[in-house]
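Predict the holo structure. Ligand: 5'-deoxyadenosine.
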Amino acid sequence: MKKEEFVLPSLKVAQRRTKARSNIEKELFEIPHEVKNLGVDRSFYLRTYGCQANERDGETIAGILETLQFTQVNTPEEADLIILNTCAVRKNAEDKVLGELGSLKRLKKTNPDLMFAMCGCMAQEEEIISIILEKYPHVDLVFGTHNIHRLPQLLYQAMMNKERTIEVFSKEGDVIENLPVKRFGTHKAWVNIMYGCDKFCTYCIVPYTRGKERSRTVEDILEEVKELQDSNFKEITLLGQNVNSYGKDLGLDGGFAHLLEEVAKTGIERIRFTTSHPWDFSDAMVDAIAKYDNIMPFIHLPVQSGDNDMLKIMGRRYTVEDYKETFDKLKAKVKNCAFSTDIIVGFPNETEEQFQRTLDIVDYCQFDNAFTFIYSPREGTPAAKMKDNVAMEVKQDRLNRLMEKTNGYARQQNVKYEGMVCKVLVDGPSKKNKEVYSGYTEQNKLVNFVTDKKLNPGDIVEVEILEAKTWTLKGKQI
Ligand code: 5AD
Ligand code: SF4
């Protein structure tokens, strides 16, 4: 296939937003007759990097491949098709994928028919596609985040016609329903409620790789939740880059608060959601979380920085005072609520004073968990054009100081649970010790516990917490 025949991503198109509403497409996915048995006697290995949206996409990709009769295997050595489902949020995530693509190439020597596919957020980047075209000729298929539903046709082209195939749409297109799914969990599941992001925080590549914000309908979401409930799933996590914006594009009354209530009324045991942007966290949402016992008291609320000027340059739309107000409301209204956050250090020109204010907000909130990152410039974002006067050693030092603080609070928050009895959703025997079970509390804390009973994944049991560590709790079933 000639280069002209590839469908390549365009940053210009990805940056654009139109008022046009996305359609809900229920019949777009189809399997052409000649592709139906493509996977007979063939296996695939899928590796997913990055966020939960990618994990959930991985389940769709696996679902499509199994519909085409491929068999999933657990090591790349056994596979006829290797798929890397990639993340673009920071450069180190990309370097990992490119390294992996390089090292897996050796497998083509022993298996010349082996196919490599790359998809996910990296596939949406112009720069990455140029690198793949130039330096990774062994990658046979590239598809993006907006055309997963085209996988049957694209695979056929790459596999049967033996043509290098690159198809990446830059415009997000519609909300596509009724794609196959292979759930990787047995009692916990992801449920997409919306796709894309329109916040355009100045450091973030996601609005370009995942397109404009578009919501699924309440009915389609509830139908999926009920199906999961019927299949014995106990916990669902509602997914969106910013769930607080849910329904705005559809002009739905009540937005995410209404959806949360409707999902809670299904009676499914545990509901979680991620991610919430502090800017549009409404009082109605706080009230809904407080009202229903099956909405878990655990909020991931990325603060990013504790300095108002920095928040402005980041394009976050809230001040530290706004953040504290939302945090305080949740803390006051939602009983025994746990909080996690995301923080970026070393944003261009961040001063020591500004960094100190980030430490101050950590002292104020005393997060149960914090994901901390050094700023990574992303091509095409406004921040990538900013001159930066902060040396990498300074950024690393700030990250270390920040982590020391956040780890301290993580441990301190866990210690509060010593002596308490928590409800734990059982995942199964612990990875390290088969005599011990592990699971998560309502506040999303990992508990390893002993019991004299035989438990199954999906059971909810009461565990007395005996000892707190920084990242886990130890206990015994009562
Ligand atoms: N550099 C560093 N961290 C980033 N994040 C997003 N973009 C970048 C970037 N360019 C972080 C934010 C976000 C989390 C998912 O990743 O903290 O909340
Ligand atoms: Fe990125 Fe901001 Fe959207 Fe989150 S809300 S995905 S940080 S642009």
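The chain has a mean pLDDT of 96. The first helix runs from residue 11 to 15.
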